[in-house]
Amino acid sequence: MDLQDLSFAVDGGIATITLNRPAEANALNLRMAQDLHTVATHCDSNPAIRAVILTATGKMFCAGGDVVSFAAAGDGVNELMRNMTTYLHAAIARFQRMNAPLVVAVNGTAAGAGLSIMLTGDVVIAASSAKFTMAYTGIGVSPDGSSSFFLPRIVGMLKAKEMMLLNPRYDAAQALALGLVTEVVADEEVLPRAQAIARKLAEGPTQAYGSLKRLLLDSFHSGLETQMEYETRGIANLARDTHDAREGINAFAEKRAPRFQGR
């Protein structure tokens, strides 16, 4: 893959995506959005990938959009933002509906688009020194990156409005209390902890993980009976079509640990 503003590696069924613009606080520009779409599509398409880690280099996770590039675009900023969000939103959709769980390792401040991207993680590990803020209205724009979808579902509508209108800054402990992150660890333990979780997930029933991710996503707009029908189809199809469901059922009956293969 021809990547410029992030790095990508796969080892032992675990893909690691690393935002790599540390001199610019890993701010999201058009090329990084394109790179995210490229790697997200690969992770969604490659059945050998059974867990994905998203992290960043340097002291910040992502400071948001690359405001310098917005200013430089002048009258073309409308087209630039349309292009950026097209790639970013397509990447987020891939991450949300792929089978492999997404573990986000927040090594530093997550602001604006950085916070939006963080909220898409299935598991979010944050450094104890990390800070969090929405920031969009601070430069006179409204949120993107799916945050208007996920944030009110995580913190409630009134809190989401507060975060988006007033841009309060939260430390890691406050973010944990709000449910923005799964776990807070010492700064030096962020990536090792994310890797440990990814290894555990990569040994699990990957097809079942994908089914439950899509069930949860669809539950936001399905009625009760529709959602239960999705549940019926999901569990029945997994039992019929996947090695891991048969292995899990047989292992339980035989009183042994299952050996999942992600298929």
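Next protein, fold it too.
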Amino acid sequence: MGEKAVPLTQRVLKTAGLIILLVALFSLLTGCQNQNKDASPAVNGIATESTGPENVNSGGEPDTLTITGSGVEHETRFTLDELKSMENALSGACYSAVNNWPSKKFIVGKGVKVSYLLQTAGIKEDAQTIIFRAADGYKAVFTREQLEEKRFYFPNLMKDSTEGAVEVPPILAWEYKEDTREIKDAVIDKLRLLLGQTTLNEVTTAAFVKGVTTIEVLTDPPGRWSTVRAEPAPGKVKPGTEVVLSHPEEDLVKIYYTLDGSEPDRQSLIYNPSTSYFRPELNKPITVEKTVTIKAFAAGFGKHDSQVATFRYECE
């Protein structure tokens, strides 16, 4: 006898089941490919999440700090364990800070002194520019003098008082905590640059680079910030005239000024306490009610202070 015929309906169901199974398998494979493709999302063209190991520096080695550049005798690399073993160079301190809002705060940290790391790498006498780079591309640039000058923790920062100021060193911290003054509150995190203030109003928070992987030391001169501008131009003006001070890189510098003709310094009045993108209403023009001589200069990390500019206004 011949084979028993399979009903048409049963054959159709088997074929449909096979098609469904193939479609499901194809979808699964395609989904896996898309997941890998989108594993590193980007915002404005910059990757916001890395698919590789954490704390990978430009040399591709995890958990490593590299000191390099024309300003050191030899490229040097340290693991985190090696940094922690530098007993003679370890430091724990509280740091006062002002940000670009501007608001004041405190942060504690435990780490190793930057000066010791640079000495270990053989910093040259003609080294002039020092750059701290993070794994995510963020960086902070300093002149050598800005890292070597005396910097302080101001415990009475909130009272605008320098009373009780304590000198603190720039450190690379592996334990830290914001909004506290207690060292015991510090917690382990990625390497972060911490440094003190030279004055009560110096903005330092933007320089606290987090996730530092590279310190680049260069013999290249850092240059000088360009001079401050004023509008309207100096000369005879009507009482009540508002003078606007400006700078081509205003969000990278602070403009210090005086109104009595004396030479301004970092203790002087600040024209732009906030950046233009946070609270621009704090950056108010100077109202001229009588003859006045305004002197101003620009200061910021990464370059030497600008020359002092003088603007004299005579009321008609």
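About the second fold: The mean pLDDT is 85.
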